[in-house]
Amino acid sequence: MLKIKNLHARVEDKNILKGIDLNVNAGEVHAIMGPNGSGKSTLASVIAGKEEFEMQKGEITFMDEDISEMDPEERAHKGIFLSFQYPIEIPGVSVTNFIKTAINETRKSKGLEDMPAGKMLKMIKEKADLLEIDRKFLSRSLNEGFSGGEKKRNEIFQMAMLEPKLAILDETDSGLDIDALKVVANGVNKLKSADNAVVVITHYQRLLDYIVPDFVHVLMNGKIVKSGTKELAYELEEKGYDWIKEELV
Amino acid sequence: MSLKEKIVSSYIAFEDHLEDDSPIHELRNEAIKTFETNGFPTKKEEAWKYTSLNSLLKNDYSILPRKADHTIEFKDVKQYFLHDIDTYKIVFIDGVYSSFLSETTHDAVDVCLLSSALSKSKYKSVIEAYFNKAAKQDSLTSLNTAFAKEGAYIHIPKHKEVEKPIEIINFSTGNEAAILLQPRNLIVVGENAHVQIIERHQNLSNNEVLTNSVTEIFAEKRAFVDYYKIQTDNKSASLIDNTFLSQERDSNCNVHTFSFGGKLTRNNLNFFQNGEHCESTLKGITILEDKQHVDHNTLVHHIAPNCESHQDYKGIFDERSTGVFNGKIVVEKDAQKIDAFQQNNNILISDKATINSKPQLEIFADDVKCSHGCTIGQLDEDALFYMRSRGIGTKEARALLMYAFANNVLESVKIPELKRRINKLIADKIGVSLGFEL
After folding, report:
1. Is A187 on the interface with B (CB under 8 A)?
2. Of chain A residues 218-237, which have a CB less than 8 A from chain B?
3. Per-residue pLDDT tens for A96-127?
4. Which of A67, A138, A173, B361 is the most buried (most CB within 10 A)?
5. If one looks up domain A2-248 in CATH, what number appears?
6. Where are the domains of chain B?
7. Of the candidates B310, B285, B286, B313, which has an alpha carbon nearest to the alpha carbon of residue B300?
C-alpha cells in the first residue's frame, strides 16, 4: 500500500530524513519508535505532504501511485490520514462543521454529491459513541480549549469519520491517561480491517499493548536502523535506545 | 471651480428655497461657515493621515437632490431589502424619499422622514431638543448640516419595543453623472425602548456617488439600540459616514459595521456615554480587495463612571486594498470604574495590501480597566496544513479560516435573517460557497 524508498528530506538547511525504506501493506500495523529528534514526526509530515519539508531524494508511492508531488488534500482524498501530535485550534469552526466539510470535500474530489444530512448525522452519532465523545463536544470550536486527551480523541473521531486506507498516528498516546488511551486504542482497533493499515509513531511501548503492531521499526538519526516484531518494542522499553546505538557502531 | 466653491455657492441657491421660519436655518448658516472655513479634510490632519479624499473631490457632483426621471421597480431592488414585509422601510432614491418603496408608520412609534419632522409643528420640540445636539461641529458634519433636508426620522416613545427591524436604504440611480448625497438621520429612542435598525447605501449604476451621511442617535435611560451598517456598495460609490450616539444611563447601544464594498469608505463612529452603567459595543468586519479602502475611525467618550465599552474589528485585506483602524477611547476624570476594551485583528492576504492600525487611549481617571490589542498577520500555515491533510482544498481551507476569523463578530448579530445574509455575503466575497453556516 505505502512504499517508501531511500527517502531523504530536509527542512530549510537541515537534513532530517537520510534514507528511509518502509513498506506497509494492507491489513498491517506498523510502529515507528525512536528517541526525540530522530525524524519520526518529519516522516509523518512528509507522507502527509507538508510543504515546508523538501524531499530531496527517494520515492513515495501509495496504492502504486507516486504521491511525492501531490498536495496534502489530494493525498487525503486518496485515503491517507495523519493524526497530529499537536492538533491545531481553529476557533469559530465547530467539530461537526469541520468534519462535514472534510467529508464532502473528499466526496467532491471523487465526483460524488454531498453526503445526505441524515446519513451524516447518523454516522457522526455512531462514531462519537465509539469514541465515547459527548454530543455537546461536537458543537464546540475545533480543538479550542480542548484538553490534551480531548484533542487526541477528536483526531481519532475524525479518522473514524474519514475512514482512511492508511492512518498515521503521530504520538497519539502523549497526553492521554490510561482510560483515554484505552478508548482511543479501542476506536483504532474497531476501525482496523484487512483493507487498511495503521502506522503508529510513539516513544513508548505503552500504546502498543493496546494497538498491537505486526512490525516495529526503530528510527534514529533519520534512518530506520532496526526492524522487528512487537518483541522489539518490549526490548526498547526495557533497555532504552543506547544498545542499538552500540550495536550500530 | 473647486468642489468646495461649488458647494458654497450652491448653498445660496439652496437657502432661497427654504422656508424662513425653518427652526434650523440659523444652524445651517453657521454650518456652511464652518465648512467654508475648514474645507474638506486633508492628510495633514492627524485623523485623516491615511485617507485621502483628493481623488473623490475631482468629480463634478450634482449637489442638490432632484427627483429621478425614472422610478425603480421593487423587483429590481428586492435583493437589497432584508424582508418584503417584516420590516419598516425608509427608502430614498437619489436623496429623494420614495413613498412607493417605503413602509413607514406613525402607529405608536414614528418611523418617517426628517423633512416632515423639520416642517411640522408637532415635531418641533423633538427637533429643538435633539437635532444637531450630538453631532460634532467638524467640517464634514457641518457640510451635511448645512444641506440637511432629508433622511430618516425615528422616534420610539418610552417603554416601546419596535416589533420589527427598520431599514434605511439610500439608492442612487445614476440619474446624474456624479452625485453628492447627504442623508441626515435623527433617531430618538425613549426610556426603556428597544429598536433595531439596518442602514445601507446602494448605487444602482456605475456613475460616481459620494455620500456624506450624518446619523444622530439618542438613547435615553435603559434604551436598547441595535444598529447595523451594511456597506456593500459597488466600486463607483464612496461613503463618509458620520454617526453619533449619545447614551443616557443604563442604555445599551451596539453598532455593527460590515464593510465589503465601495471604493472609499470612512466610518466616523462616535459614542458618548453621559450616564452611569452604559454599555457600548462597536464591531466590524472588513473584507476588501482590488483598490478598496476602508477607514474605521472610532471614538468612545466615557464621561460617566461605571460604564463599559467593547470594540472588536476584524479585517481581511487582499490585492491592493487598504484599511485603517483608528480607535480612540477617552476616559474623563470623573469616569471611574470604566471597563473599556478594544481589539483590532487583521489578515493581509496579499503582499500589496496595507492596514494601518492605531489605538489611542486618553485616560484621565485613575481607577479604570482599559485594554487594547492589535494584530496583523497572514493566515496560519499550520492551520491550513491541518485542514488540507483532512481533505479540505486550499481555497476552502483559506475560506474556512477567514470565516472562523470573522465569526465572533457575527455571533452578536441578533436578527437571524441578517446573520444569514451577512454569512452569505462573506462567502460570496471570499469566493466560495461552504455547505454550512457558522
Report:
1. no
2. none
3. 989 999 999 999 999 999 999 999 999 999 99
4. A173
5. 3.40.50.300
6. 3-274, 390-438
7. B310
